[in-house]
Amino acid sequence: MTEKRTPVSRSLRNEHGPAQAASIPSRRGSIGAAIVLLSGLVCGTLGLAGSPSEPITWLAPSPQTEDGRFTNPVGGLLNARLRTRLPFFWKRIAVTLHPRPGAARRAFEAPDVRAAAAPPLPRVTWVGHATVLVELERARFLTDPIWSRRASPIPWLGPARRVEPGLDFDALPDIDFVLVSHSHFDHMDLPTLSRLAKRSANTLFYVPLGNAALLRDQGIENVIELDWTGRGSFNGLEIHCLPAQHWSKRSLTDTDKALWSSWAVIGPDRRFFFGGDTGYFSGFTEIGEALGPFDLAALPIGAYEPTEIMHLTHMNPEEAIQAAVDLRARSALAVHFGTFDLADEPLDEPPRRFLEAARRPDSSSLEAWVLDIGESRSF
Ligand SMILES: [Zn+2]
Ligand SMILES: [Zn+2]
Questions:
Q1: Class at the top of the CATH hierarchy for domain 1-10+21-379
Q2: pTM, whole model, 2 decimals?
Q3: Which bound ligand lies closest to the C-alpha atom of 249?
Q4: Residue pLDDT, tens place only, 306-330
Q5: Which residues of 258-277 are buried (b: 16+ CB within 10 A; e: fewer)?
Q6: Which of 214, 229, 301, 330 is the most buried (most CB within 10 A)?
Q7: How far is the CA of 343 from the centre of ligand 2 (A)?
Q8: 268 CA to centre of ligand 1 in angstroms
């Protein structure tokens, strides 16, 4: 017998105030933040409702519900069953107290991306989790940069970094722009974004709709907020805000008040795609047809178990390979695994399954890349 799932109420929520700031110093605030953590803010504990009867078009401005919350074209969010969620939350606490083996390897020596001996441009460096440094001739940019010790609103609680960042923050080259996919704490790390803004007043921060205020509250002014299919530019590069199948939450009251997205950076010589955090969805094919083929797609491959909680808002490794094929990518870089312990699958399982899936005959034209944290590769 299955427990009845209740749709999340999307009406009568207009009374909610603005999203809460991430740093919550009081004890009461810390307890509230702990509840938020346990309700799954880090990486999703919700599924999506059933399919609409109409054919879905993803390459369009994002849909919103009547109360101004963002949603996915496939439908609204549903809670997973409590009997699945509760053991999941307990396991999250358990792995905080007793870390599991299997974290990603860190390159023996952190690369000096400014050294002449570094692989030639264009190149990508995996810093850890969903953070990559991409260096093109025309620009250097970071995706979802996080250098903090925890992906959490509370300094002493929540998923701890299992591997040091692959690049020292102070060793970064000048960063022209930053792509942020959504507000979950493992993707939007405000302390790191603030450090980047302080480091250079010229760094631009691209965020999906509804997220700019979170950055401006931290004193970051150079923010460009885009909707799906919105476009920016930098030094001859097109920067495209694109759909993802996901959700957002940073506080008890801000569920889906800010949009989530993927990003593409299109230049005359190279096309790069960043998946952010997403379930497998038909939008990959639409994006591939509109903007592909991509030279490199950085795709999330971890946080897929338990499937009842995760599978519509996160991809498993086989789905990530299929997404790369849909995107018409020449190479796919695995990210979002092995850095923070966020879900039930063994930490070292995603890269194994990713490489295995890439050996299937239908993905034989794709190169699947699993880098060590801190490793660079030309593309
Ligand atoms: Zn997320
Ligand atoms: Zn995530």
A1: alpha beta
A2: 0.89
A3: 1
A4: 999 999 999 999 999 999 999 999 9
A5: bbbbbbbbbbeebbbbbbbb
A6: 301
A7: 10
A8: 31
